[in-house]
């Protein structure tokens, strides 16, 4: 009971934020026939294009490669939202926070829930695709989903705050960050297979932090075999990012609250 009383306010806030995220996402597709269904459909369309363009017939069956790309691309959208979607939060969303009686941490948490909502929709697409195309992928690996979420959620929150603080102090960094994110898309094993890379690809798969997180999600859904290196790398990156993010928040929150 004591534990429930402690977590109940957080769960209540999470459910309320998810409902708001649903309404906001729905309004974004207002006037279209498919409505919110455009969110998963656009993911499927782009994933299908990547699969057809970059798939090599001698690498793996097309269904397996489609699931490989889909699992990576859905997580990439979450990562991209954590970066590009956080460039101007403080600069443009403080009035929203004041109107909704949100603290600075509450504002960033609300936007984190927005990203989680979209990711959950795309995860639903991924799960359906796996059940239809490769039901054998579904197994005990799914129990790794809880630690996977426990890693990416605080990492996303910390990255979001760090990115925004950087652009507050150095506004010109906003354009550079957007450009770097586009480069990171091609430098990450989303539509190319990390295990088969050589030269530059091998270097990127080893030293690109995104590769560790992509490896985790593919292992959770049985797309690739379990490898401890992906989890160790992700946890290490998460600890560093969260540590730096906590220090940045502690030292800058007073300044941020004074921004009009």
UniProtKB/TrEMBL annotation:
Q: Which family is this protein grouped under?
A: Belongs to the ABC-2 integral membrane protein family.
Record protein name field: Sugar ABC transporter permease
Q: Does the keyword Protease apply?
A: no
UniProt xrefs under PANTHER family: CAPSULE POLYSACCHARIDE EXPORT INNER-MEMBRANE PROTEIN CTRC, INNER MEMBRANE TRANSPORT PERMEASE
Which GO terms of type biological process are on file? lipopolysaccharide transport
Q: Which UniProt keywords apply?
A: Membrane, Transmembrane, Transmembrane helix, Transport
Spans traversing the lipid bilayer: 35-54, 116-137, 143-163, 175-194, 228-249
């Amino acid at each position: 009971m004591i534990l429930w009383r402690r977590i109940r306010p957080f769960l209540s806030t999470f459910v309320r934020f998810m409902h708001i995220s649903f309404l906001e996402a729905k309004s974004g597709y207002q006037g279209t026939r498919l409505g919110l269904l455009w969110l998963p459909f656009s993911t499927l369309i782009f994933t299908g294009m990547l699969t057809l363009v970059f798939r090599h017939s001698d690498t793996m069956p097309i269904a397996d490669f489609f699931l490989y790309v889909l699992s990576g691309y859905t997580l990439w959208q979450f990562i991209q939202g954590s970066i590009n979607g956080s460039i101007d939060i403080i600069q443009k969303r403080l009035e929203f926070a004041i109107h909704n009686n949100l603290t600075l941490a509450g504002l960033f948490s609300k936007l984190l829930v927005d990203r989680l909502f979209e990711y959950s929709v795309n995860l639903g697409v991924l799960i359906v695709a796996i059940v239809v195309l490769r039901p054998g992928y579904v197994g005990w690996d799914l129990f790794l989903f809880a630690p996977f979420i426990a890693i990416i959620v605080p990492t996303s929150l910390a990255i979001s705050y760090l990115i925004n603080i950087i652009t507050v102090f150095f506004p010109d960094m906003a354009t550079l960050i957007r450009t770097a994110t586009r480069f990171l898309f091609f430098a990450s094993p989303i539509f190319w297979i990390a295990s088969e890379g050589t030269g530059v690809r091998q270097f990127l798969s080893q030293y690109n932090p995104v590769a560790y997180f992509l490896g985790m999600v593919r292992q959770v859904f049985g797309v690739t075999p379990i490898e401890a290196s992906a989890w160790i790398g992700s946890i290490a990156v998460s600890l560093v990012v969260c540590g730096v993010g906590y220090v940045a928040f502690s030292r800058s929150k007073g300044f941020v609250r004074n921004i009009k």
